[in-house]
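User: Hello! My lab partner asked me to get a predicted holo structure for this protein. The small molecule is adenosine-5'-triphosphate, SMILES included with the sequence. Please write out the structure tokens.
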Amino acid sequence: METIKALRIPIGDWVEAIVDFILINFQPLLDAIAAAIGFVSESFENTLLWIHPLILTALLVLLSLWRVGWRFAIFAAVSLFVIMGMNLWQETVSTMALVVAASFVALILGFPVGIAMAKSDTVEAVVRPILDFMQTMPPFVYLIPAAMFFGLGKVPGTIATVIFAMPPSVRLTNLGIRQVSHENVEAGLAFGCTDRQLLMKVQLPLALPSIMAGVNQTIMLALSMVVIASMIGAGGLGNTVLTGIQRLNIGLGFEGGLGVVIVAIMLDRITQSFGHIGQGESLFRRLMRTLRGHPAAGEEKGEEHARTT
Amino acid sequence: MAKTKLVVNEVYKIFGPRPQEAYDLIEQGKSKDEIFEETGMTVGVQDASFEVYEGEVFVVMGLSGSGKSTMVRMLNRLIEPTFGKIEIDGHDIVKMSKEELIQLRRREMAMVFQSFALMPHQTVIDNAAFGLEVAGVDRETRYERALKSLDAVGLKANAHSYPDELSGGMKQRVGLARALSNDPSIMLMDEAFSALDPLIRTEMQDELLRLQSESQRTVIFITHDLDEAMRIGDRIAVMEDGRIVQIGTPEEIVTKPADEYVSSFFKGVDVTQVFTAGDIARKQQLTVIERPGSDLNSAIQAMRGKDRDVAIVLDKHQHYEGMVSASSLAEAKNGDGKIQSAFLKDVEPVTGDMGLSDVLHQVANSAYPIPVLDGNKKYIGAISKTALLQTLDRAS
Ligand SMILES: Nc1ncnc2c1ncn2[C@@H]1O[C@H](COP(=O)(O)OP(=O)(O)OP(=O)(O)O)[C@@H](O)[C@H]1O
Ligand SMILES: [Mg+2]
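Assistant: Hello! Below are the structure tokens for the protein in complex with adenosine-5'-triphosphate.
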């Protein structure tokens, strides 16, 4: 036992050394990243806060009505008024903005990686263990380097969230593209697609349900991370929950938690609704059809049956 | 003989990392199974050589795993041939650069797939225009051409539906229209009708034959179904374990099978039993479509123009109405002027599924060709005395 203790491998020290090294030598790069991320998250937050609460509520309710249905629209309206009633509007919008900004960055980074993985088995073999590693690390762990490199506040909060939330979109983009039916890919090639056309016209559209499932998961992970990220000053509803815990104020903690749940349900249902393209007649399709003045499909199908049987 | 469109010369496809090794084993006479056991590599196609003529329907037939799909995919290089030469109009496609290959696929060849392989997110017309879109044809032109090919397969009315709103048969019509839109000189069809139920399947075979009669494309058609091969093939190549064991006309394949494997396709069947009336019915007779309002004169005109003695009268859904001769038409013209009164009384149509032996007597004793109909009274073709004699002659 003594010898084993004496043999201690100083991984912690090494990591510290690496972090120091990066801090000293890559300061301009870190600043640039911080500026870019800061710009994205602040733009989202400022825009959302700039819109009058009632108008934003109306927009969200309309979006729910269009994508999900009238029942969910009523739920959205009630929930958003509850949030206003709890005086948590600003925190909620701040959280939404952080989630949307972090997801946005995660997706921008995640899609190309996912596509590259789908195109090359080597890339997949390299990236897959990294993704596994990223997903099995407890989320708190991301806070430490983020805070070390970028200090406290929204920027490190967003960055930690980006890293934590990215894996599903990478994975599901890769999976979605690989799952596209072999014959569809062959059809694309047989009609003379270039690699790029194959991706844009066949693989991505057919992988869309899977990609959207990845987007949905990324957003959900971002939301769960946002609460944790409030520990390094990311603010928003997470802060409310954290304050509630620190002061043992059950009421405040519950209100913050309720806000998070409402945001979660809304983001979940709305993003999920974009994954159903190609499965049955969506409202959008019906709208397009009506606009073009073509009859519904059912009638024509019935006619064909009468003819062939 | 027609012009040669496609030449396949000693083509091999070996799936695996060291094809030369497998090739040497093939040279030593090892079988596909032995090679797989020794090296783990699969011989997809070995030593395939054949020619396809312009405008012919060339069927490749064989059991599952015999290499049919591999063969057809090498023709547009969806699968890279391991060795050998494939020439289209005299150009070796194996040597083509990627860019040239893409141009070839856009201009010369189109493919129809077993599972249709339509794009579910696009409407029927966008699917039909897919090849043109990829080739960069502007929207107006490509819609125009797509609509024309949809019209050719009878789906114009569904142009703005989505594929999941169509039945299987309709989906494959879209697949066919997509191929036609590019106006290819070669169509590759890999078990294109195998996923359809039997009734729709024959309907689609007729559709293909009809399209062929309108504009003669070179069709390479894969199937594992003997009936289908006999129906639509001008010539048939039979594949076994990656080798082509016989190439010939349907009659040759049936009457002079090269080996046990080929004859096993029709085991236990005597040749006259193999053929049904539908098999030897040919659409060589003149047909006249009877539309409400059209009169005798159009039929008389058509017959005079083509210098034929008899014509088959169909309604616009291809249903059989009757057979007329030049003299019966002339008589009716002087009579009540109705085409119905010109129908020849002693001509009785038969159905396509009747055995050849059952209709022998009738054909032999009739002064006219005997019309053959399907179960829905649709016209399949007619059997003339000459066609019958030829078939019997080959059979014996
Ligand atoms: N990508 C591949 N890798 C390895 N072996 C393959 C590959 N594709 C086909 N094969 C093998 O090549 C042989 C021929 O297959 P192919 O798909 O051409 O047969 P087929 O005649 O089309 O059969 P089916 O009627 O089942 O479609 C089979 O033994 C198959 O296992
Ligand atoms: Mg096959």
